[in-house]
Amino acid sequence: MKFGLLFELNVPKPWGDRTEYDTFHQAADQTVLAEQQGFEYVWAVEHHFLPEFAHSGAPEVWLGYLASRTSTIRLGHGVVLLEGKINHPIRVAERIATLDIMSNGRVEFGTGRSAHPWQIEPFGCELAETRDEWAEAIDIIPKMWSTDWFSHKGKFWDIPERNILPKPIQKPHPPLWVACAQPDTFEMAGRKGVGALCFTLAQPGQMKERIDRYRTAIATAPEQAGLFKNNQVGAFTVVYCDDDNQRARDLGGPNALWYYATLRNIYDPVWMQRNLEDVPPSYRWHAQLVRSDDRVGNKGWDYNQLIDNGSMCVGDPDHCIRTIEKYEAAGADQLLCFMQVGRIPHEKVMNSIMLFGKYVIPYFAKKARGKATLL
After folding, report:
1. Is the pLDDT of residue 287 over 80?
2. What distance in Å separates the CA atoms of residue 321 and residue 367, rounded to the nearest whole number?
């Protein structure tokens, strides 16, 4: 089991003149500490128009800053939106390669299309076409990196022959990933031979079926993008660790519920105003989910229930270890730890990272060494 930090860059109100500044720079400090404590990855989302919830509209800039402050931690886009009206594939290839050069080959190329029209329709994107756009883009971007002269004529892009520069340090190219929530996306990720970033807010046991579908599909990867398989699953969850188990619950639990509620207050009304039959098939699962009574974070859910069933990893180091073992058993290779959540103070997040470095990460490292010895 590997460990990464994931940042939405939450900026809860009230806002002052330096609130965003503090959030961005504190998150960078948290990443530097995480590298020192044994975290192997940091992931930054690309989100738009989500006040308080995520102010990460230009993750490539923030990750570029991190490249100069770190030396070993891998820099992950979790994810780049691949709709052409937001990010043209040529520009994506250029930016990722530049970041790979500046970080000396530490980029993880996560991709996606957004789970909701709120973020992408202002750019002029067509919902019905986003999945096909993603599929075409993820096929051609690795070719831009691995060939001197590239051309393409497809459904969305007609690119005359050009040498697209620069080229990434990593050969043949950085690892490819895609954000996964609905079950068929896990299978699609496997068919494409790319890593699955599991952003489903669910109990670890509920993830297992989707991860199993992914492993089955990636065994053959009949539609492989890129020049190698990236057979990995990263599982996202809210994480907060404290020396005292109850104190962790009392702080981490309410802030996790704030996170769920803030997103729902933005997303849910948009889907509820649309007839399901008018929603493109590749988005219908998301539109149906907001109408469901049993999803994580619904009104009436107690955060202790979500902590106990593993939907969030909150507690003292021993409790966090037991929760992470549930994700490990479900088939996850990496835990994407969302620690900078809500109004948890910066110093508390730093302490949570320190406790992971002192107790949690060494536990799983020792466990992995034991398995290697048996092999």
Report:
1. yes
2. 12
How far apart CA 44 and CA 26 sit, in angstroms, is 14
Taking a C-beta distance cutoff of 8 angstroms, is the pair 167, 174 a contact?
Answer: no
Backbone angles phi, psi at 350, to 5 degrees: -60, -40
**pLDDT tens-digit map of 342-352:** 999 999 999 99
- The pLDDT value given to residue 52: 97
Q: How many CB atoms lie within 10 A of CB 7?
A: 27
Residue 327 token pair:
């994700």
User: 373 pLDDT exceeds 70?
Assistant: no
Q: Crossing angle for the helix pair 346-355 and 19-36, nearest 10 degrees?
A: 10
pTM: 0.96
Cα–Cα dist 357/359, whole Å: 6
State the DSSP H helix or E strand holding residue 200, giving kind and residue range, or none if neither: none
Name every residue whose Cβ is closer than 8 Å to that of residue 186 and which is 6 or more positions away in sequence: 180, 196, 198, 210, 211, 213, 214, 217
* Gap between the terminal Cα atoms of the chain: 17
What is the rounded distance in angstroms from the CA atom of residue 223 to the CA atom of residue 23? 40
Two tokens, residue 241: 């660790």
State residue 236's pLDDT score: 96
**How does pLDDT run across 110-164, given as a tens digit for each residue?**
999 999 999 999 999 999 999 999 999 999 999 999 999 999 999 999 999 999 9
Structural domains in the chain, sorted by start: 2-374 (3.20.20.30)
Distance of alpha carbon 70 from alpha carbon 76, whole angstroms: 13
- Structure tokens, 277: 């039959």
Local structure of 15: helix, strand or coil: coil
Q: Which of 203, 242, 246 is nearest to 356 (CA)?
A: 242
**pLDDT surpassing 60 at residue 255:** yes
The alpha-helical segments, DSSP class H, found in the chain are 19-36, 59-69, 89-102, 117-120, 130-146, 183-192, 204-218, 245-272, 281-289, 303-308, 317-330, 346-355, 361-374
List the structure tokens of 337. 């730890």
